[in-house]
Amino acid sequence: MDSSHDIKVWSIRNLIPSTHPRKDTLLVREKLVEQMETGAVVPQGLIAHGRGECFDYLLGERTNAFAERSIEAAAALLLLSSYPVISVNGNMAALAPKELVELSKEVHAPLEVNLFYRNEEREKKIGEILRDAGASEVLGVGIDASETIQELFSERRKVSSRGIYRADTVFLAMEDGDRTEALIKLGKKVIAVDLNPLSRTSMTASITIVDNFIRVVPKLTTRVKEMKNMSKDELQRIFQSFNNKDNLKESLKFISERMSQLALSL
Amino acid sequence: MDSSHDIKVWSIRNLIPSTHPRKDTLLVREKLVEQMETGAVVPQGLIAHGRGECFDYLLGERTNAFAERSIEAAAALLLLSSYPVISVNGNMAALAPKELVELSKEVHAPLEVNLFYRNEEREKKIGEILRDAGASEVLGVGIDASETIQELFSERRKVSSRGIYRADTVFLAMEDGDRTEALIKLGKKVIAVDLNPLSRTSMTASITIVDNFIRVVPKLTTRVKEMKNMSKDELQRIFQSFNNKDNLKESLKFISERMSQLALSL
Asked: Which residues does the annotation say bind ATP (chains A, B) (predicted)?
């Protein structure tokens, strides 16, 4: 079982000087730290965010051409799917709750709380955040997560029978490799947002969007709106012509070239 | 002022499967999470650790040739310095307290607690960790940090009159750019351990060791032991022939080439 302890957290939102060159980055960090106080974000989620920050920096902190292409393919796949589901963890809920609700409404995909560190209290908090952001229903909270995914151990295998269990496509972000692999083994398609092109999730997903989750979600919603009236054939063509491995290679080449340019400019 | 709140932390040390491919990485993370419970590590320190993890991954999680060279130059500088001081933050104390105490004894450099998020309770905890690891004295705790560094705002400028204030060389790791710049402006030499070759600390320090702090400290202590009997001239030659900018360039080129190779192997 988990052991739980009380600790003190100091929010330094008011201590950030307005002139600090990385002010925006610091404010996003404080958002996560503050959501750790509510229990929605776990400490391990902060470490994961740090890894993401690093890759985002290497990617130039912008949505690059390869990411735009994977967003387009993801929009096509979401529109082609009969039952897409959005899997939400603590970091996702803390960073872009309204944007997730909008995407959910636009593609008629339910939101399901699905945590690496499962715990009913946390599920409820995340459910609350999503409902406060406008969600009419949130799956995967408490006994709703009653179905099990055989490939995974312990509490991580619990999913909602109305959600991920019956989904043909799962949209997720910053996910553990084991879990992404389990979903793929079950025959589901996975759209993953992951800043690390080398993570097991990135390598395993059907479509990996190598970009910052905060930038991706609104862009994806916009793209879905734009592509809504396309024919199934056209959407199929876009989805089929997308090669995830090639796209990941492009992102690695981008980082490689950027590092090499930065070395020259030192 | 800081606001402080009670939150729950779940340690998952016992939930990590022994077969997990990244077990060691997960255990280091738990060490930090557990030290957040004692107050030694702050949430922002977890995010910083995550950034470090990413760069370590890009560097192949080993001490590369350029890092070996900077460790050699650092050993020379420590042996040449008349009053070197080791600046310790929460993450450093949580990850390698014994190794820091050994380095401190080997180069006769006092340990000084020096926090970005200063707070007497935290200072005391970190002092405790270091004393438990064998330190006979720890500077920078409470009223000992009575001198001020003019370049820095608020609590971050407080240092010990017996430590960083009078040091000619400061050894630090995972440090904020503003603070490293302030130390350099005061005419001090700075040896920085930083996995990000592009951070302001890395760019500003006299010697930057682009490697994982946990690997660096014992290696640096060993190098100091090996070089102890060298003449001042020989040590000077080693230190003078080290060019920090060139070394940082090499680390960037290394990452660039590694990413390009990984892209080919996908």
From this structure: 29, 51, 194-196, 200-201
